[in-house]
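for ur thesis appendix - RNA polymerase sigma factor RpoE. copy paste whatever u need, i formatted it the way the template wanted (i think)
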Amino acid sequence: MADVVMPQEPDHTLVGRVQAGERAAFDVLVRRHQHRVLALIGRYIADWSECQDVAQEAFVRAFRAIDSFRGDAQFSTWMHRIAVNTAKNHLAAQNRRPPAADIDLVDAEVASDSARLRDTDTPERELMREQVEQCVLAAVAQLPADWRQAFELREVQGLSYEQIAQAMNCPVGTVRSRIYRAREAIDQQLRPLLEGRSATRERSRA
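the 3d part is after this line
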């Protein structure tokens, strides 16, 4: 029987446990990095529910490729690179172009503790990331219990709708409805923040 995964374990330890076959360790990594990944993808994709889907796809890709991670860079750097590529591929598949002004996203593909990232990751960008993360956390905390449970089982643990229905002892249609409503509620909380960010960018380009 595997040891209990402790949330405070460093990323490299958790990665090693995932590579040894412990899925629970990857769940901890997802919870630790999901909001920063969502904020990163949000720079490419404005729609919140679409961001959720792309973020989930990015984590699925990371899980499938975890054996290729050798620790040459931090896990966060590796995960961010996957997130950026997943967002770009998602846009390309729909014949949509990434934002023109995304030097910060290019920099995000470089080691997160590198001098280049420190030079370009301005206090304003860091503040925006923190605001998005805090807004998501607050929005999730305010959800009704059944919405929050369905949302977290889907977005954090990556369960299928059928698995969630079994876990919550309710029809699949109810699960879909709860997750949809949860996403809508979170989107409502985030919309003013994202719209304000878009307006700021437009003014800076004018």
